[in-house]
């Protein structure tokens, strides 16, 4: 275990990541899903309140920052019209289910149950952005999620009382942020689509110039993922 004051460092890194996402949103480089980001603000702030009631202390700062950052992103998405993301039925369904999770917390009034429902609500709210990151990673920014994962790890190392109230939300945040970093940074969905669409051996193809060249091919040819088929 490290000194719990390192949570402040994690919160600072989280803030840097959030500000970078806000910057990209204001520039129109990213199009945040407002359903996800609004509920990502609400659920952690509720969990933060529950953690304080359960005596979590300074490690709860990470949970607060995980909610405060998305709140800034959500507000920034209204400044630049290019940053708006068209909502789908999936977004609306996840939003409704997430709100139900928040209502259940209000009904139960239990700190531990509140954290469970906050994680559930936050996770459901993450689904639209996870899907978007898989299908269109260029519409997202990975840096905020990277710092979020680092912040969660730092928080976990500061915990001296290992019960669900202390470690539940940090572990969840680490898992979701890591998943989003992988999807956005490495463009998993895009690469998979390219692999599926790649031409099979024996087909007539026209190779286009690209940044990735294979030494085993002729100088005027490049990666087969860049190939297009000759018109019939």
Radius of gyration: 21 Å
Q: What is the ordering of alpha helices and beta strands?
A: HHHHHHHHEE
Give the helix level as a range of percent: 55-70%
Shape field: globular
Class inferred from helices and paired strands? mainly alpha
Low-confidence runs of at least 5 consecutive residues: 202-232
- The overall number of domains is 2
Widest sheet: strand ordering: 1-2
**Mean pLDDT metric:** 77
Number of distinct beta strands: 2
Our estimate of the beta-strand percent is under 5%
Give an overview in words.
- The chain is an all-alpha fold and 232 residues long.
- The protein folds into 2 domains: 6-189; 198-232, no CATH class.
- Helix content is 66%, strand content 2%.
- The protein is built from 8 helices and 2 strands; from the N terminus they run H-H-H-H-H-H-H-H-E-E.
- A two-stranded antiparallel sheet has the order 1-2.
- Helix 2 packs antiparallel against helix 3.
- The longest helix has 25 residues, at 111-135.
- It starts with 5 loop residues before the first helix and ends with a strand.
- Residues 202-232 have low confidence and may be disordered.
